[in-house]
Backbone:
């Protein structure tokens, strides 16, 4: 049987498809847009515009590298505040032009650094959640690899929350969790089982809406099937959501998160 | 200003120094972790739990905080029926909560209610660091959200005193989602054009910093409080270098533009009152 820890390992594999792989295979004519108009351009979060079939959309994604050099460039997918602020800028732009938003979540967490604190990492994450809860366009969020802590949630407040079957979504990495609760980071495996972080766990907890199947060996081993199912679900979801009035869309999104932990 | 403070405390200092070594009365004494003076507990409590010698603001229970902020007898609790849940069935969690309830005489890490502040109506939520380090699980998220929604319904200003180690580990992903829930409720509050004052006290970190704590129309902080997203230890481990003096303290956040004002405890109630009054109508 595949354990929660096995999935953590799969979710972190360097060969695992990253946000840009999904973007290239699901959308057409992706154009990346840069910068938060305030401080800089964070390469651990990419954003831009593209077509989903004929429909213009805005895409946000946490991007890990596919090799050591890329990972350094992408800061291992750990955004700084300017990354979240770039995401927010592009999401507000999407709202202005009535474009649905699709976000890809894949991060070990928001970057814990001096500069990140100096520039308000907490504020950036909080602001994104507040703003996303009120955006007047459909938002589809997909956890494709590691969805860890507030760094993941900062781009994951949406109308549909999707997880790849081998993705994990958690309050903290199992290592961090183990070092806090068991005072021993090497108990990460045990932590992973108890934390309820797999797609199936999150579906049972009513946190996510949909699990996209993938091979036990990882999405890269049958990527076209993964893409086909995911793309279909995104399209169906957006079509359903576009039938709602803006008020209904926002109220449903509010109630979705309102029910969590009630 | 510093000299004033020293003059003011001179009298108390004498008393304290004379009796400092009295082991017999240890239950009545407390050592200031900043200036290391041994202080008479009652004296500290009468001074709003601020060190009379060095001005260090000690951590406050929700009960004491409410007493300092709400007009006497006006605080009516809301959401007290919302209790700890155990969505992960995490081993030992509820047992620990029961033991803590017994010890602290409080039921969860936040107390919310409606009260008057110098006669002005307000919704007041006060976190309590004695209860699992003020961590936010479903009960805290629910209580805070209920306070926000009540504030919208009654069109009253909202004040949240934050103290928290972050999201509560034992409730896993459900704790994480409380960040989204409270932030979404504040978005509604914001749309309704109502005032939200967030007050950050020592320590405010993690998921609370990354949600309602950072979303005030006005953000106040007590002096010398630790405030940040990632805690200093995590950052040190990540970057493998020593952090600058005063990193993640209130004064650091003020310097970097993330809080509006540092307010000493003795002035807090009046500052809140002034802000509520100015925003009335
Ligand atoms: Zn002192």
Residues:
């Amino acid at each position: 049987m595949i354990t929660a820890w096995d999935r953590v390992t799969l979710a972190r594999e360097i060969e695992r498809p990253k946000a840009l792989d999904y973007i290239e295979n699901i959308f057409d004519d992706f154009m990346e847009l840069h910068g938060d108009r305030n401080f800089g351009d964070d390469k651990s979060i990419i954003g831009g515009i593209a077509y989903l079939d004929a429909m213009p959309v805005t895409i946000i994604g946490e991007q890990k590298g596919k090799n050591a050099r890329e990972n350094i460039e992408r800061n291992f997918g750990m955004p700084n505040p300017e990354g979240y602020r770039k995401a927010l800028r592009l999401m507000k732009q999407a709202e202005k032009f009535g474009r649905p938003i699709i976000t890809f979540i894949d991060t070990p967490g928001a970057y814990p650094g001096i500069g990140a604190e100096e520039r308000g990492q907490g504020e950036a994450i909080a602001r994104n959640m507040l703003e996303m809860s009120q955006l007047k366009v459909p938002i589809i969020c997909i956890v494709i690899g590691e969805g860890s802590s507030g760094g993941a949630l900062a781009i994951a407040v949406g109308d549909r929350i999707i997880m790849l079957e081998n993705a994990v979504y958690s309050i903290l990495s199992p290592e961090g969790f183990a070092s806090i609760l068991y005072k021993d980071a090497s108990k990460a495996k045990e932590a992973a089982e108890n934390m309820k972080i797999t797609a199936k766990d999150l579906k049972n907890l009513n946190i996510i809406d949909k699990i996209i199947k993938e091979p036990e060996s990882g999405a890269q081993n049958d990527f076209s099937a993964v893409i086909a199912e995911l793309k279909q679900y995104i399209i169906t979801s957006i079509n359903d959501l576009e039938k709602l009035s803006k008020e209904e869309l926002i109220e449903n999104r509010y109630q979705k998160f309102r029910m969590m932990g009630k | 200003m510093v000299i004033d403070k020293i003059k003011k405390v001179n009298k108390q200092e004498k008393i304290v120094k004379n009796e400092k070594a009295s082991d017999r009365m240890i239950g009545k004494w407390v050592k200031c972790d900043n200036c290391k003076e041994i202080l008479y507990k009652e004296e500290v409590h009468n001074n709003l739990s601020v060190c009379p010698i060095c001005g260090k603001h000690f951590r406050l229970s929700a009960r004491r905080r409410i007493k300092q902020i709400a007009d006497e007898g006006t605080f009516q609790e809301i959401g007290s029926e919302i209790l700890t849940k155990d969505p992960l069935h995490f081993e030992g969690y509820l047992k620990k909560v029961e033991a803590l309830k017994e010890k602290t005489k409080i039921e969860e890490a936040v107390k919310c209610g409606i009260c008057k502040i110098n006669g002005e109506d307000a919704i007041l939520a006060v976190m309590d660091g004695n209860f699992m380090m003020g961590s936010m699980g479903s009960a805290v998220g629910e209580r805070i959200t209920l306070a926000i929604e009540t504030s919208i319904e009654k069109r009253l200003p909202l004040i949240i005193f934050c103290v928290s180690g972050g999201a509560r580990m034992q409730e896993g992903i459900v704790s994480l989602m409380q960040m989204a829930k409270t932030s979404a409720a504040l978005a509604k509050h914001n749309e309704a054009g109502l005032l939200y004052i967030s007050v950050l006290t020592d320590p405010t970190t993690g998921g609370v910093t990354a949600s309602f704590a950072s979303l005030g129309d006005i953000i106040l902080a007590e002096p010398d409080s630790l405030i940040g997203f990632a805690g200093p230890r995590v950052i040190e481990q990540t970057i493998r270098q020593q952090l600058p003096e005063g990193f993640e303290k209130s004064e650091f956040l003020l310097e970097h533009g993330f809080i509006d004002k540092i307010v000493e405890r003795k002035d807090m109630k009046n500052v809140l009152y002034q802000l509520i009054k100015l925003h009335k109508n």
User: Anything to note?
Assistant: Chain A touches chain B through 49 residues (CB under 8 Å). Chain A has a mean pLDDT of 97. The first helix of chain A runs from residue 4 to 12.
